[in-house]
Amino acid sequence: MLTTQDLTLAHLTISATPAQTIEAAAAAGFGATGIRICGRRPGDAFATPVLNNPSTISALRNQATELGVRLSNVSGYQFYPETSIDQVKPVIDATAELGVPILVANSFDPDESRFMDTFASYCELAEKAGIRVALEFLPYSGVRTLEAAWRVVQVSSCNQAGLLLDALHLARSGATPEHIRLVPAERIVFAQLCDANPFSGAMTDDALLLEARGARLPAGEGVLPLFQFLDELPVNCEIEYEVARQDMRGKTPTEKARVAAADAASFMARYHARQHGMEVL
After folding, report:
1. Distance between CA atoms of residues 242 and 228, nearest Å
2. Pairwise CA distance, residues 161 & 158, whole Å
3. Alpha-carbon distances of 41 from 81, 83, 91, rounded to whole Å
4. What residues have CB less than 8 Å from 275, skipping those under 6 apart?
5. Where would I find the H helices in the chain?
6. In principle, which of 64, 85, 177, 183 could form an S-S bond with 228, CB 3.0–4.6 Å?
């Protein structure tokens, strides 16, 4: 049975600095964590600069090692029409220096052909650095569906590129867990787990973004088909818990992480019980 030690803490769950995220993950018993190392656009302010900052990179690596937390993935700059490879290369360099094996990519470029070219170049540089790129589709972005994301990855011709599957984004894009079968297992880099209420109102980009960043529910407390989602993932797929709870906004990063750990452990215990034909409470 998966325990909290087997799960990854998503940086969005606690929205803290990289150092605070690592500390909180360790305190809550997560075995790994994802970290954000810069803003979403080149030039955005960021509380603790990591890019082109060897001393900070070294400190983060040492902290993770000392606390026994594996650095799973890095979120860097997202891709917009004006984003260039030269601007995002420092993200690849920092990720390699941190020793992190996965880079998450998101596109907000409405020109799919242009993003395909940029993504292919990004993946080529990342592959040379020993890093996998996990493209995450967002139903309010330039790559809105599983099918579109898989098409971009295929066009990239990069063997190490793959997808990040988020349970919320899969549902809001109109797909079901069965659609995951469209993607070869080896191209699913990792998955993110959360729950959500039934969607109400107009499904606009702004509404979907607000829900994704601040209105998710703990796993098992909403309507998403999470048992089926987990069933369709590859064996031993890494699971990252991504739930930014509104009722925890005033809490410390460690408090948020501990609540997330308890929520995740409770849900995974129920999933394990269901797998083994036991009563699910």
Report:
1. 18
2. 5
3. 11, 8, 12
4. none
5. 11-14, 18-28, 54-67, 85-98, 112-128, 146-156, 167-172, 205-214, 226-232, 253-275
6. 177
User: What's at 106, amino acid-wise?
Assistant: N
- Per residue in 21-39, pLDDT (tens digit) is 999 999 999 999 999 999 9
Q: Which residue has the tokens 């079968």?
A: 181
CA 73 distance to own-chain centroid: 8
pLDDT tens readout for residues 127-181? 999 999 999 999 999 999 999 999 999 999 999 999 999 999 999 999 999 999 9
d(CA 194, CA 245) in angstroms, rounded, equals: 10
How far is 130 from 124, CA to CA, in rounded Å? 10
Angle CA 152–118–87, to nearest 5: 140
What's the CATH number of domain 4-275, 3.40.50.1820, 3.20.20.150, 3.50.50.100, 3.40.50.10490?
Answer: 3.20.20.150
pTM for the model stands at 0.95
The maximal CA–CA distance of the chain, rounded, in angstroms, is: 54
